[in-house]
Design a protein that fits this description.
- The chain is mostly helical.
- The chain has one domain.
- Helices cover 73% and strands 1% of the residues.
- The protein has 20 helices and two strands.
- A two-stranded antiparallel ribbon has the order 1-2.
- The longest helix is centred in the C-terminal third of the chain and has 27 residues.
- It is globular, with a radius of gyration of 21 Å.
- The two termini are 35 Å apart.
Length: 421
């Protein structure tokens, strides 16, 4: 276990220190774990969350068609027209990301809105780093708001027996949706403070013509089908991924029938960011390896020992250890491991597990905003910036993400305890 921890720490140092080579660091680390026997060869394929990979790939393709249709530029024009200055334009995109991310995967949200942020930034001749980071952290925050907002929310719903509406009201009390909105409000106030000097007026008013509305319909289809899929029992684990890839294929077929241009199809496929997909695949194998080594189980046992049987202490430890872990560890395998641990802890105290379940989700989902590699949405946003020629330094991210995340977590932490303890 000690060797697994040391290698894990070295992996994440490499990910932070070598942003241009993150995919190779993750894949290289995964290979070492495999060679050392932490990840049996017959488990490699199963350790990768193919649902997430397919969702990202399919949505990237749809977004490529979306960009080609000129709709992002049209939306950028509308935001520029309505926003009085740069500060409010960035906040508007952040809030827009929050709304969308409550209903579809946060990575998909980043992929949808990043082109709009890039277009606005180019028109105003400003750096797109802050707008895209604001979109990523807002989308990651809202992932905990509804059952379909994030993979971890889906996992919690399964463990707690919650359906889509239970995330709004549960057992006669307000539920996670409203708690997350309160956290988002406080976090947005910090964003406004951070952007207080970005008061330059917006003057780049244009009237872009949309060439094709079908990709926009496809994105709406993603939202609708993902919500509908959440109500289907016993569905395949890769259902959401198949929905996204399937709609991308529909988009390719429609575009080809309309234009008869195979080059456009190839260009759309090439827009799928293989670098990000390889990075995430490598990380899934790394996390699976340290899970096999017993590292995450040991953490669960440590939580039980530290709590001393006090519910508030257990709750506090779960929230803030989840924040800490999610800053460096993908929250999907972490939450999958911790859900049964939380259930056992609650049973040992003779209480319902919901306050601990909700604390786990708030800490693990919102905590991912602490670092640029703490959530898939952040990795995706930074990957988009890298493709545009912008390398995001750790401090550039942390000065936005750290206070934003902590303000949202603390708000959620207090409200959940007040409502559900």
């Amino acid at each position: 276990m000690i060797l697994a921890i040391v290698l894990f720490a070295a992996t994440y140092v490499g990910l932070l220190a070598l942003p241009k080579y993150r995919a190779y660091v993750a894949l290289g680390s995964a290979l070492i774990y495999i060679i050392l026997g932490y990840m049996p060869v017959n488990e490699i394929f199963g350790s990768v969350d193919w649902n997430v990979i397919l969702m990202i790939a399919g949505t990237m393709g749809i977004v490529a068609l979306f960009i080609e249709s000129k709709m992002p530029s049209k939306l950028a024009d509308k935001i520029i027209e309505k926003a009085p200055n740069v500060k409010w334009a960035i906040v508007a995109m952040s809030l827009f990301a929050a709304v969308i991310s409550a209903f579809i995967d946060n990575v998909a949200t980043v992929l949808i809105l990043a082109p709009i942020a890039l277009t606005i930034s180019k028109k105003l001749k400003i750096s797109p780093v802050t707008p895209i980071i604001a979109i990523a952290i807002a989308s990651n925050l809202e992932g905990a708001a509804t059952l379909v907002g994030d993979t971890t929310s889906i996992m919690l719903g399964g463990a707690a027996g919650m359906d889509f509406l239970d995330f709004f009201f549960f057992q006669g009390k307000i539920s996670l949706f409203f708690v997350v909105q309160a956290g988002a409000l406080v976090a947005t106030l910090y964003l406004l403070f951070f952007l207080r000097k970005s008061s330059q007026p917006l003057q780049a008013h244009m009237d872009t013509k949309v060439t094709n509305y079908f990709p926009s319909y496809l994105l709406v289809g993603v939202v609708v089908f993902l919500i509908l899929a959440s109500f289907v029992p016993n569905k395949p684990a890769i259902t959401n991924g198949l929905i996204c890839v399937g709609l991308f294929v529909v988009g390719l077929i429609y575009d080809f029938l309309k234009t008869k241009d195979t080059k456009r199809l190839l260009d759309a496929v090439k827009e799928i960011d293989v670098f990000t997909l390889l990075l995430l695949s490598g990380l899934f194998i790394v996390i699976g390896s340290i899970t096999n080594a017993g590292v995450i189980d040991a953490v669960g046992q440590l939580l039980a020992d530290l709590s001393g049987g006090n519910l508030f202490v257990i709750y506090t430890i779960i929230v803030f250890v989840s924040v800490l872990f999610s800053a460096f560890v993908d929250n999907i395998p972490y939450v999958a491991t911790m859900l049964p641990v939380v259930g056992v802890l609650a049973a040992s105290l003779g209480v319902e597990p919901y306050v601990l379940y909700f604390g786990l989700l708030i800490g693990a989902t919102l905590g991912g905003n602490l670092t640029p590699i703490g959530a898939s949405a952040n990795i995706t946003g930074i990957g988009i910036l890298r493709k545009e020629g912008y390398e995001v330094k750790l401090w550039d991210y942390m000065k936005i993400g750290l206070p934003y995340s902590l303000s949202a977590v603390l708000t959620g932490y207090l409200l959940i305890w007040i409502i559900w303890s």
